Structure formats: C-alpha cells, structure tokens
Amino acid sequence: MGNNKSHVGALLPILVFLILYLGSGIYFEYINPIEGGMGFYVMSVVVSFVIALIVALYQDRSRTFDEKIHICAKGIGDDNITIMIFIFLVAGAFSGIANASGGANSTAYMLLSIIPVQFAIPGIFIIACLISMAMGTSVGTVTVLVPIAAAISQTAGINIALCVGTVVGGAMFGDNLSFVSDTTIAATKTQGVEMKDKFRVNFKVALPAAFITLIILIIISMESGAAEFAIQEFNIIQTVPYFIVLFISLMGINVFVALCTGVLLFILTGIITKSLTIASAFSAMGGGTSDMFETIVVAILVAAIGALIKENGGFSAILKFIKSTFKGKKGGMFGIGLLVALMDIATANNTVAIVLAGPIAKDISSEYDIDPRYSASILDTFSCIAQGIIPYGAQLLIAVSLANSVIKDANITSLDIMPYLFYQFALMIIVSLSIVFYKDNKDIKTINKESF
Prior knowledge:
452 residues, mainly alpha, 76% helix, globular, disordered C terminus
C-alpha cells in the first residue's frame, strides 16, 4: 500500500456518498415515492460522487489543494483505469449497433423457434444466458428479452413474475462471465489479471449454478404442462455477428478485437438486411457510447476519491477490519465478497461497486496471498449476485417496467420477481461452497508464473 497509516475517518467520503445516494433512494422510493418515477434514480450517482469528492478534497489539511489534485490525477491516470475507459467506449458502440441492426431481437426469436414449446421457460433462460454472454450487458439483455418473455407469459398463461425472473437470472449469468461485460472488465483490470484466466475460475462457479437453475425451470415447466406462443419473424443473417463475437471472445482473443469485429459485422449485416444505413449506423454507435458516459465519469470520480482515501489511510482501516474479522485465506475471500456486495447494495450498480472495492480487494488478496484470478472472480460474482437481487437495481426496475407495459394489468413489482431469481440464489450458494472447500490449484499457480 502507498501509505501504512490507518485512519477510519478517511472513509467519510464513502459514508457521504451512501447517505446521499442510498438515503435519497430509500426516501423517494418508499417514504415519499414519486409517481411514475424510480426513487433510486432521483439523486444522480455522478452528483453524489462529486459531493463525496469535495469532502475527500477537504480532508487532510496537511496537504495543499494542488497536492491533493496530483494524488487524484495519479489515481485517474492508472493504466487499468485508462484501459477500462477505452473498452467502455467500444463496448457502448457495440451495444448500440447490435440493437439498432436488429441482431438482438433476431437472435432471441431464432433461438426460441428451435426450443420445444413445453420448455419455453428453460428456453428463455438459455437464450438470456447466450445473449448476455454475447452482449456483455444484463440491462441490455433484460431490455431485449423481457417484452418477449411477457408476451409468452400472456399467450401461454405462464406466471409473469417467473418469466421475468428467468430473464433477469440469465442476464446476470452473462454479466458475470462475458468478456465484453463492464463488470468483467472492471474486475480483471482492478486485479491485474487476464480475462481468459478469470473466466476459467468464474466458469466453474457460474456453470453449476446455471445447471441447477435449468433443472428447477425444467421441473416447473413439466408440472405446468405445454405452452403455446407465436414466434415473430427473424433474419438469420442478423444473428451471425453475435455468434462470431461470442466465439472469438471465448477463444480469449483481445476484447478490443472482439468488440471492433462485432461492430463491423453488425454494420455489414445491417446494411445487407436494410435494417441500417451508414448514417443510422454511426448514430447508433454514437448513442451506445453516450450511454457509457455516466459509467466513465463514475469510474474517473471513483478513481480520484479512491486515491485520496488510500493516501489518507482509509483502505488501511478497511484492511485492518477485514484482517481482524476474517481469518485465513478463506476468510479473506469472504471478506472481498462481503465488501463488494455491500458496495453494490449501497450504489445499486455492480460496475461502480467493483471499481470502488477493487483497490481494497487487491490489497486484501496481497495480504492473504489470494490468487488475483480468484479475487477478480469473487468481485464479479458477489457484485452480480447483489445487483441481480436488490429490488431497486436497474435490472429489476427495468424488467418490471417493461413487463407492465406489455401486460397492462400485470402490476408486478420487483418484490414479486425476487422469489423467482433462482440463478442468483444458486450462484450465492455455489460460490460460498467454493470458498469453504477452496484448495490451492497447482494449475492456477502455473498460470500465475507464466502470466506474471
């Protein structure tokens, strides 16, 4: 660590952020709700972090303002933060062009057309897993699939909360694993590991959880009887870029190459199928990158605040607490998981939670001799579990809004969906067991020597 002193008061900026962001969210969501609005989006996360940054700059009177700005600049200028920002921009362009070209909808309906109607719900889960893996965004997957799932629910008479919860579960599967997911990018970059190596560790946890979820959904489908629904038209050409990006990502090819290839392919297929023009393609990419601006600004603000907190001894205080509370390597792993989960519960954004907890997790992994691939996996997994369960997270709020817009008399809430979040609950159990029964892996140690 850059500073050996431990000072719990240095954590005040985080407390200020939590009071402003989480406090206002609870107030406007549950105490004094805003009609037609989402309470947890009244207070901008950017504004909350700006105020927290001002508090951080005001602390430690022994340093001049210019010295504090220099500390912020060093934090913002970190190689991992810079790479993360560049990847966010390309990922935004990819997401924008994918939706505008019709690739997401065509992929969903194509996969749905080959699934037996009795197993529509397990099929929706598989489709959500695949699309979220390719898109790298849980919110994007929810946006694409929830209207389809709601339509299936209405046509086949299936529980709407079950359908929507299934989509959210599959969306979090890809959010946790995808090479183009911002959470994967943030987790690997803050821990200084390769995406493909983090994927190998993460997959051993996510796959069993997905398999358990699939079995549960199959049992429910068999007990419910056959379903009937109409498949909308799709263009198979528009599905090609997703599968190519998914394939080259799983092959471990550089994320920039994968994303740029996907963008070019979506432009090409969009023009061929006449769903895009050159002008609309550029507009879609611009819109996609614009959607990433808040995430980028938050990453910059968090890096600056984190640098000041670390310099003032805040991270040392957290590390001291973790060391006194959690014993041994397994305790350190649970400490990282608890840390990022609490950050996510507070911020309602798993990427922000990882960026905020990442530097502390890096210090904890060094102190406890935890393989950085495991710390990256734990960061991503626990943040996705929390984000996929909290009723005020973007995933559940958007899913509810879309479902209610498709089925006017549905009137479901986030709380109605929570009992059907089978994947998130299964993932929580599996990752906890993996830590409890953790043993040093010789193969991973070999990878470490080769990679570093």
